Amino acid sequence: REVGRVVTVRGWITTVRSSGKVAFLVMRDGTGLLQCVVVKSAVSQDVWDRFAQLSLETSVAVTGEVRADARAPGGYELGVTDLEIIGASPLDYPIQPKEHGIDFLLDHRHLWLRSPRQRAIATVRSELEQGIHDFFYEREFLRVDTPILTAAIGERSGLFSTEYFDEGNAYLAQTGQLYGEAAAAAWGKIYTFGPTFRAENSKTRRHLTEFWMIEPEVAWNDSNDNMILQEDLVSYLVQRALQKCSAQLTELERDLTKLEGIKPPFVRLEYTDAVELLHRKGSTTLGCEALGAEDESLIAADYDRPVFVMNYPKEAKAFYMKENPADPRTVLCDDLLAPEGYGEIIGGSQREDDYDKLLARIVEEGLDPAAYAWYLDLRRYGTFVHAGFGIGLERTIAWICGLPHLREAIAFPRMMHRLRP
Ligand code: 4AD
Ligand code: MG
Questions:
Q1: Given 77, 294, 361, 420, which is the most exposed site by the fewest CB atoms within 10 A?
Q2: Which region, left, alpha or beta, applies to residue 36 given φ > 0 means left and ψ of -120 to 50 means alpha?
Q3: Are 23 and 16 a contacting pair, CB within 8 Å?
C-alpha cells in the first residue's frame, strides 16, 4: 500500500548486521517486524556512524522509502535515508537470543513481553476478550461490573483479606456470581468480566492467584440451557481465534487441526459415568469428590472437543448449587473439561432457588447466614429458576494457544511465589 512512499517508522532494534557497505537492521514497532536497508554510499557519514551505535532494543526513528521485498519479514523493507537514535540501550539488555530459564524470564517479564511469542499471545487474548463481549452483546446480555471488595465468601478456595475501616474484613472477590444472581433477577441476562482472586496454596500450571473470569447469569435458564450457552460460547471463541488469529497461532506453533473441529454439541457425562470411566482407566478416585487434574485429563483424552461432566455429589461442590430432583445426593452442575490435558475451563450450575434448602446449605457449610441475608432475599422475593457459569480466561487462552502453563496467558501473572514485576 505504502510502496514507493517515504515514511518514518519509530520502534526498537531487534537485529543489526553489516557488510561494511550495506547494513541491515530489523526493528520492531509494536505491531511487527520491519527490515531496513542502509547503503553506505546512499546516506550521509553521520547516518552511517549512527548505525554503528545501534544495539538490541535501542529506540530509533528510521526514515526511508517503502519497497516490496518477498524475502523481508512481512514482505516489505525500508530503503533508509535517515536514522535517528531516540533512546540508547546498554549492551547488558537482559534478554538475549539464547535460552533463558523460566524464573529469569518471569523476573524480566516487563522486557520479555517484547518477544514475538508474547505479542502473539497478547493478541489472541485481546481478540478473545473482544469476542466474549461481542458474543454477549449480540445476545443482548447486560454487562455488569461486580465488586472486588466483598464481605461474603463465594467459593471454597483461599481468601485474600484486608481490613476495611470499621466494617471488619473485606475479601477480594473469588467470584462475581452472587452479585450476578441479584443482577439477573433485576435485569434478566447479564455477564460479568473481571479479575478474581484466590489465595490457593497450589503451584500448578493451571492456577494463578489473580485471574480473569467471565460469569454469565441468566434468569429462567436451567442446567440444560446453561450447558448450551457454554458450548456455544466456547465454540464461538475457538472459531473466532482461528479466523482472526491464525498468524498468531502459527507463531505459537499451535496444531490448528486440534481446534478446527471444536463445534457444538459437546458430550455430556454424568459424574457417576465419568467415575466409572476413570476406574476403567486405573484411577483411584473415590467418586465422592472434585476431580483432580490427572483425572480430568484422563476423561478428556477420550474426546476431540471439550466434554461436560455434570451433576457432581453435593459435598464436592459449592453451597449455591441446586439439588438435583432426580438424585438429591447430587447437584445440577457441570464442569467443562478442555481437550489435550488442559482440564476444567468452566464451572457452572443451576442455582438453588428454594429458600429453606439454600439456608440449610449455608449453615451446613459453616457460613454465617447473616452475611448471606441479601443473597437469600433473592429467594424470598420472587424466587426464579436461574443458572450461570464462570469461564476462566487464562485457562481458555492457554488451551487455544497451546501454552504449557497459565503464566504466559496474562501480561503480569500473579502466582504463589510471584508478585513482581
Ligand atoms: O469453578 P469455579 O470455582 O466457579 C466459580 O467461581 C463459579 N462462581 C462460577 C459461576 O458459576 N458463576 O471457577 C470457574 C473457572 C474455572 O473453571 C477455571 O477456568 C477458572 O475459573 N479458575 C481459575 N483460573 C486460574 N487460576 C485459578 N486459580 C482458577 N480457579 C478457577
Ligand atoms: Mg470449578
A1: 420
A2: beta
A3: yes
pLDDT in tens, 22-39: 999 999 998 889 999 999
| Residue of 128, 177, 213 to test ligand 1 pocket, by largest number of atoms within 8 Å of CB | 213
CA distance 216 to 387: 8
Nearest-10 Cα torsion for 104, 117, 199, 297: -110
Claim: this prediction has a pTM higher than 0.85: yes
What is the distance in A from the centroid of ligand 1 to the CA of 309?
Answer: 15
pLDDT 10s digits, 262-290: 999 999 999 999 999 999 999 999 888 88
Q: Which of 129, 144, 127 is nearest to 185 (CA)?
A: 144
Q: Which three cell numbers stand for residue 211?
A: 485471574
Q: Is the CB of 207 under 6 A from ligand 1?
A: yes
Ligand 1 close to Cβ of residue 27 (< 6 A): no
Collapsed DSSP state (helix, strand, coil) of residue 184: helix
Q: What is the C-alpha to C-alpha distance for residues 405 and 396, in angstroms, rounded to an integer?
A: 11
Handedness of CA 71, 73, 79, 80 (dihedral sign): negative
132 class by beta-carbon count within 10 Å (0-12 exposed, 13-18 middle, 19+ buried) = buried
Ligand 1 atom nearest residue 157's Cα: 3
The secondary structure of residue 369, as a DSSP letter, is G
Residue 1 pLDDT > 70 = no
Q: Is 343 in the pocket of ligand 1 (CB under 6 A)?
A: no
Distance in angstroms (rounded) separating the CA atoms of residues 332 and 418: 36
| Binding site membership of 346 for ligand 1 (Cβ less than 6 Å) | yes
Q: 336 in ligand 1 pocket by Cβ < 6 Å?
A: no
Q: Is the CB of 386 under 6 A from ligand 1?
A: no
Cell of 391: 469461564
Fill in the DSSP letter of residue 188. Answer: S
